[in-house]
Design goal:
Chain lengths: 561, 171
């Protein structure tokens, strides 16, 4: 029996175990939407295509599966670009299906035509334009495989309208054979052995863990390694959740807004064990001052990450989970005498740093944003899924909410996309309908995708939005305060909607707190509501995020509170 | 330092723009690039001449490898290889200089491929030094136009281009 391209597409999705996708219809994808009408696959209809990608991204980050979205050609497709670039920078597996004008019109400047393969080439792991219906199922199979293997990433498939109508017999390949794509999973044994030797010799080791810990599912191996040799762990923003937040060996985040102890430990260590992190500029500060007295080990599945920013002593290309397991096996066989006493001095030094310069703020009459995050942490028991927007809200969330589990923190780390958090929270709530999902937002960021309130209402997704409302684009304002003589050029958002009334307009609950003692009752009421809720916390206007490493400075030169 | 990189890619539409986009997007430079089908019609060979220090070259080679359609990357620099480039030069050749042009072409074992009353078009193949030399010699006689192919390269001896393992997969 012959099937149309549109039918084949949905069959492939079902065979890949896809149940929920995010999208928006349009002319070029009418045939696919027609098939969706009575398909077991649920499409979550967003209100802007950018949100479809972020929602699929939130779905992917929380579940570890490939997030899928489907949009139309032209503007529908170009609206996805920010979402795709966000996922690409953070190595999130996504599959984006975009409609395209019929093949005979491609290149004709047809209505709603955009060269999506060209536009997304630099921000996808790979992309396809399907010109022949006979290659459709093979390309979809490859796309899923490419998206979730190796260093994961978004893959885009552009689907011309006529190809979706064409008929062919359907077969789904069992496996993918790509001679040009074979990620390395097993680390080099000799290198891992060297890594073990260095670990046992070092007196002041630090683990610097990144998003690779989460994408490879290596949290338990990381915990085992750290506890086995009492090695303190700092994470990048992307690594948050990869190592338990409240754990005594957790130093918190490093880098521009990292903790004092994490940045001092990096600067003072004699061995830096980098696991699935990429020495991003926000982590390292001035490169010359980063881990200057230290040997560096770097484990990463992506060879291009190695020796890109920092020259390392022991590079290991491989899956961080497999490498750590192998390392643990080696270490378990070794004698570990003499190890403990050395690390004791080092750990004492670190707790000294923690005592002298903890994360801190002081609150009087006005609500401090840090206090709101702290209360959200306490009142959810650290069991919520938290997404953030970008800016101060993101940094306070990463500092004051201690994430216990991987895949519970959703944030745009690499691209820094304002407007990410709310749709990502929607995606997470679709994946986990019974979990508490909270978007910690700023009053600026939330307005970038606020139209998605309708999506949350339509699908009964009880996402909670906590707006840390300071009336400013706070992070930019903070830079202007510190480095641009307080010339607050266009960072003051004088006009914003009344968020409580806005909630009302969407038929959901809106709550406001203006004084510190109103914070807890507001969170309490929000958490007990079965509906989406907007919490508007009117916070101290000019609060800053500290510590802060000024751009271009080494990370031990922090501005403190 | 200058490097000659040989890249085996899948012979598919869009691969050239993936490669050239990678160079422009990451700020690497291309001095020349040639591409054509190999003996296996599903694959094409690109020869890219680029410049950079060791770290940049390592990145170029790794980033190329990361492209899904790239099968093999082989930096030939420092290895034994033969490289050739062809140039077509249209040079003014009037009464006083016609014989002189032919003498130079002869010395360089070039060929005249087109003749007109006022010009010769000549074809020269060789390594870069040879092409530079003849261009320098012909310049005073007035070069009207010239077109270069960019370099192609192949390892010497029995080794084929598949032979040399790419270094970053063995870290």
């Amino acid at each position: 029996m012959k099937l149309s391209g549109a039918k084949i597409l949905l069959k492939c999705l079902q065979l890949e175990g896809v149940g929920k996708i995010f999208g928006y219809p349009g002319g070029a994808v009418l045939d696919i939407f027609d098939q969706l009408f009575d398909s077991p696959i649920d499409l979550i209809l967003v209100r802007h295509e950018q949100a479809a990608v972020h929602a699929a991204d939130g779905f992917a980050r929380t579940t570890g599966k490939v997030g899928v979205c489907l949009v139309t050609s032209g503007p529908g497709a170009t609206n996805t670009v920010t979402g795709i670039a966000t996922a690409y920078m953070d190595s999130i597996p996504l599959l984006i299906f975009t409609g395209q004008v019929p093949t005979k019109l491609i290149g004709n400047d047809a209505f709603q035509e955009a060269d999506m393969v060209g536009i997304t080439r630099p921000c996808t792991k790979h992309n396809y334009l399907i010109k022949d219906v006979n290659s459709l199922s093979k390309c979809i199979k490859e796309a899923f495989y490419i998206a979730r293997t190796g260093r994961p990433g978004p893959v885009l498939i552009d689907l011309p309208k006529d190809v979706m109508k064409e008929l062919t017999s359907f077969t789904y390949p069992d496996k993918v054979e790509l001679k040009s794509y074979q990620p390395t999973y097993q680390g080099h044994r000799g290198q891992i052995k060297k890594m073990a030797d260095l670990l046992l010799k070092s007196k002041k080791p630090v683990i610097y863990a990144g998003g690779g810990i989460i994408s490879s599912g290596a949290s338990s191996q990381l915990l085992r390694l750290a506890e086995m040799l009492s090695i303190p762990v700092t994470t990048s923003l992307m690594g948050i959740g990869g190592f338990p937040g409240p754990h005594p060996l957790n130093l918190g985040m490093l880098g521009m807004h990292g903790t004092f102890r994490a940045n001092m430990a990096i600067t003072g260590c004699d061995l830096l064990i980098t696991l699935g992190a990429r020495f991003a500029d926000r982590d390292t500060g001035k490169i010359d001052g980063f881990a200057p007295h230290s040997k560096i080990i770097h484990v990463d599945i992506d060879p291009t990450s190695i020796s890109k920013n920092v020259q390392v002593d022991i590079p290991i290309v491989g899956d961080v989970k497999l490498v750590l397991q192998e390392l643990i096996n080696i270490l378990e066989k070794e004698e570990k005498t003499g190890r403990e006493s050395h690390s004791k001095e080092w750990l004492t030094q670190i707790s000294e740093w923690k005592k002298t310069h903890p994360l801190a703020y002081s609150q009087k009459d006005r609500i401090k944003p840090q206090y709101v995050v702290e209360k959200i942490y306490e009142m959810t028991g650290g069991d919520a899924i938290i997404s953030t927007e970008v800016g101060q809200n993101q940094m306070w969330a990463s500092q004051y909410y201690l994430f216990k589990e991987p895949r519970t923190f959703l944030t745009s780390g690499g691209l820094g996309t304002m407007g990410y958090g709310f749709p990502a929270a929607i995606g997470a709530q679709v994946a986990f309908p019974d979990k508490t999902v909270i978007d910690i937002a700023g009053d600026g960021s939330i307005q970038m995708n606020i139209q998605e309130l309708a999506t949350a209402v339509q699908y009964n997704l009880p996402v909670k939005i906590a707006i840390l409302n300071n009336g400013y684009l706070g992070m930019v304002r903070q830079w202007q305060e510190l480095f641009y003589q307080k010339r607050y050029s266009h960072t003051c958002m004088d006009v914003a909607p009344d968020f409580v009334k806005l909630a009302d307009a969407y038929g959901i609950l809106g709550l406001r707190a203006t004084k510190p003692d109103e914070v807890v009752p507001v969170i309490e009421e929000a958490l007990s509501s079965p509906k989406p809720v907007i919490m508007d916390f009117v916070v101290e206007k000019e609060e800053g995020v500290y510590p802060m490493v000024p751009a271009g400075k080494p990370i031990n030169q922090m501005l403190l509170v | 330092m200058r490097h000659v990189i040989s890249v085996l890619v899948e012979n598919e539409p869009g691969v050239l723009s993936r490669v050239s986009g990678l160079f422009s997007g990451r700020g690497f430079n291309i001095e020349s690039l040639t591409v054509a089908e190999t003996i296996d019609p599903t694959a094409s060979r690109m020869t890219i001449v680029t410049r950079g220090d060791d770290q940049i070259l390592e990145q170029i080679s790794k980033q190329l490898n990361k492209l899904i359609n790239v099968i093999k990357v082989n930096d030939l620099t420092g290895k034994s290889f033969v490289n050739r480039e062809m140039v077509l030069i249209k040079v003014a050749a009037e009464d006083a200089t016609r014989a002189e042009v032919l003498r130079i072409v002869d010395i360089f074992r070039g060929k005249v491929v087109d003749v007109s009353p006022k010009s010769y078009t000549i074809e020269i193949t060789g390594d870069e030094g040879k092409l530079e030399a003849i261009i320098d010699l012909l310049k005073p006689l007035r070069i009207i136009d010239l077109v270069r192919t960019g370099q192609v390269a192949i390892p010497r001896g029995k080794k084929d281009l598949q032979y040399v393992k790419n270094h970053d997969k063995n870290i």
